[in-house]
Structures are given as structure tokens and as C-alpha cells.
User: Fold this.
Amino acid sequence: MRAELLETGRERFSVLAEIRSLIAAGTLMGVGFGGLFEGIFFRQILALHGMVSNRIQRATAAGMEINGFLDGVFNACCLVVVITALGMLWRVLAPRRAIPSGRIYFGSLWAGWGLFNVMEGLLDHQILQLHHVYQRDSDQFMLWDTVYLACGVLFLLIGWGLVRSTPAYRNPQYTDLRYDEIP
Assistant:
């Protein structure tokens, strides 16, 4: 009896560890996607700011070149984060031991994207003053930067709420079910 309880405890601990690994992979993927979205959409498509446009204006060819290069380095770093997250996800799901919960993973993606927005908003916009979301009008810096941070906090809350609402996260009893039986 005691041996059975010990084995059940180990299995549940193992499943919880794998759920945490799934959350880590999803969060890292969200950070990478958030960075790529910000870099491609805000910096390249809308051209609202560059990586260091608050320090080196993009009004000159040299300023555009420096900001463009640093934006490219930023996007390359985000791509490395996404590739790393894919590797983590593969390690969790390939053996088919982890509970493949879309709610946990996509909640983690949202939380990761929110984490990126909060980190980038606080560091680049507020602390280091490298750039602002809307670089063209200095009277609007704080408004757009605040909206960006608020979206990050909202994404974090939505993502964490999705993760925590998953039955497999809340209750390890689901470790006894087959993958197709998990709600």
C-alpha cells in the first residue's frame, strides 16, 4: 500500500514538473513572439520608433542605418528565443508524457507576450529611455507607453488566468486519465 502511494506521488510530481516545463516553453515562446511582433509591426511596418530612436534620431541616413541594424539584431535575438522555446516544447511533448493542454500552452504564450511587453516597456521606454511606442510626438510619449504597459499587464493576467483555470493544472488527479480524456 505504501509503495503504491509512493509511486502515485512520484507520478503526480512528474506530471506537475512536466506541466511546469510546458508553461516555461509557452512563456518563452510568448516572449519571443511578443518581441517579433513589436519589432516587425511597430518598428518596421508602422515605423513608429527604432531600437534607440530616442537617443539616435532616425532623421538622418546614419540614424536610420544604426536603428535599422539594431532592430535587426533585436529581431534575431527574438528568433533565437522562439527557436529555444520550440526545443523546450519538443522535449516536453515528444515523449508524450506531458499533458498536451492547449489552454496551458496558449495561456503561457499570452503570459509570455505580456511579460515581454512589461519588461520592454519598463526597460526601453521608461528606465533606459531608448525609444517610446509613438516616437513622433513627445506630448504623446507617456500615453502610448502607458497603453503598451497596460496591454502587457492585461496579457499577463489573461494568460495566467487561462493556465490556472486548466483542470490538469489545478488538480493532479487528471494524471490518471488518458490524453484524450482530459477536459
Summary: Confidence is low (pLDDT under 50) at residues 175-183. The chain has five helices and no strands. Residues 2-45 form the longest helix (44 residues). The chain has one domain: 9-181.
